[in-house]
What we know:
By secondary structure, the chain is mainly β. The chain has 1 helix and 13 strands; from the N terminus they run αβββββββββββββ.
Amino acid sequence: MTNMKLVLIPAALVVALFAFSATYGLWFQTLYVDGTVNTGYLEWKIVDQFTSDAGKQPDRSILPGFEGDSFIVPERKDVGWTDCVIAPDGMSATFTMYNTYPCYMAMFSVYFRNTGTVPIHLEYIEFYDGQGNLIVNYTYPNTKLKDFAVDCTGDGLPDIEILWLEPLGEQIDPGERSNEYSWWVHVLQTAPEGATLQYTIKLYAVQWNESEWPIQYTQPGTT
Ligand SMILES: [Ca+2]
Ligand SMILES: [Ca+2]
């Protein structure tokens, strides 16, 4: 009887291992499923820009803190000028002001397009100085960014102050172009004489339903 038990136990083990191996084999069997899985992709590009003193325009002037009339054109002098280069990947734009002097003022804008397949939400904007250092990460929706200064030349002294004009919070559907995002720049007294001043901006978007501050829409028929 004892010998019979000893025989039965290994036999049971063999049966159990056989069953387990069948399950194991099925677990790793490749299963083929027919069909197409569509996954959207997130992409946007800066597609256009504006600088107010491109070419030979009369220079504008304004006082520190953007006080005064921004459309003053003193004696129609043309000393400085501006331009913009959009990066080949469309993810950033670099703005340059040439031959500047204190109180010189210029206006700048960018526009971008949703080149992906899902709606996006403009989440924040970054400003970098002339050395590529991050200066400001603008993340506050529907509010005006407080004026901020940027040292473009890396000498520790601010060269320009920036006034951001448009609130964030825009949703852009696939293929659509954004609204205008614009800001003013005023050259400070501490900028080097005749300096070429440069800074870069980057815009960041997220999938519309992953925004930290989604736009609250009113449902039709509600008050
Ligand atoms: Ca000019
Ligand atoms: Ca400086």
